């Protein structure tokens, strides 16, 4: 299962639009109904507008009306398994919750299995806001 989901993320990575960093990242979501969503990083000349692979995949799934994420995989050309940025960790927490499995990989074959909660302990949540 994890190998298959990593393969899906590897496929997604090919669609990265990365004229600035040349750093391709792919993500894949396995939904509870068995369907797969793909995401790649999409950069912009205004660098801050860049969207990471993880958020691309999550926004695609939500936009298509599928909110039931079972597992996430992310892959890039890194020495160690790729580490999602803070923004993606925050979005994963809100859209998936802490218990969803996350597979982080490198194209060199290294992989770690973690969870959204482990990636963002002490996350800020909607319930933290006072009325
Ligand atoms: O987990 C990560 C880390 C980085 N990036 C992208 C953002 C940018 O396009 C490039 C360099 O930061 O990699 C992702 O998509 N996901
Ligand atoms: Zn990110």
UniProtKB/TrEMBL annotation:
Residues 1-127 form the CMP/dCMP-type deaminase domain. This enzyme scavenges exogenous and endogenous cytidine and 2'-deoxycytidine for UMP synthesis. The keyword ATP-binding does not apply. Its EC number is 3.5.4.5. Its cofactor is Zn(2+). This is Cytidine deaminase. One of its GO terms (molecular function) is cytidine deaminase activity. Keywords: Hydrolase, Metal-binding, Zinc. Belongs to the cytidine and deoxycytidylate deaminase family. InterPro entries: APOBEC/CMP_deaminase_Zn-bd (IPR016192), CMP_dCMP_dom (IPR002125), Cyt/Deoxycyt_deaminase (IPR050202), Cyt_deam_tetra (IPR006262), Cytidine_deaminase-like (IPR016193). It catalyses: cytidine + H2O + H(+) = uridine + NH4(+); 2'-deoxycytidine + H2O + H(+) = 2'-deoxyuridine + NH4(+). It comes from the Bacteria.
